[in-house]
Amino acid sequence: MASCGCRSEACRRWASAGQLGRLSLAAEPQLQGSLVKLAAFMFKQCREMGKEEEAESERRRRQMQTKLKMLNSWLPLLCRGVNGPDAPILSTGERREVESALEEMIATLQQDDQEQVLALWLHHFTYSSSSDWPDLHASYTLAGTPPLVSSSSTDITNLTFPYVLLSSTG
What we know:
InterPro entries: At3g05675-like. The protein is mostly helical. The chain contains 7 helices and no strands. Helix 2 (18-24) runs parallel beside helix 4 (57-80) and helix 3 runs antiparallel to helix 4. It is globular, with a radius of gyration of 16 Å. The termini are far apart.
């Protein structure tokens, strides 16, 4: 992608597929596995956007919007769809690489956007008891938020988060 100059366009289009990201949460495990692999690949590609050259402010703003849309669209799938029916979808090394890409992308966002993405992550991360990935606690701490879990227990009822999560009250 990078060699033919399509990375930004591919990332922009993948980020715009938010409806697919939402629908993938209810997909069959085999399809979720393929989408997790594709999303992981795209997060690694998107992390590199803007590193090739010094981007002008309008282009940089568009790239940040793409990264934000991509995180909002696909982070829930990574939290909920990481385990396949028989084995983990991504290897330990791949998980670490994607986690690093996610952390880098979050770090490039503005503070308000970081809080929005981390609130989304926390909601989906705590929803799925079968997964401990992606672990973005470091980004959460760097964003200036209080510790996630009290030192006395890892019980989910001890989670602290200062931001209101959106409810599904229509």
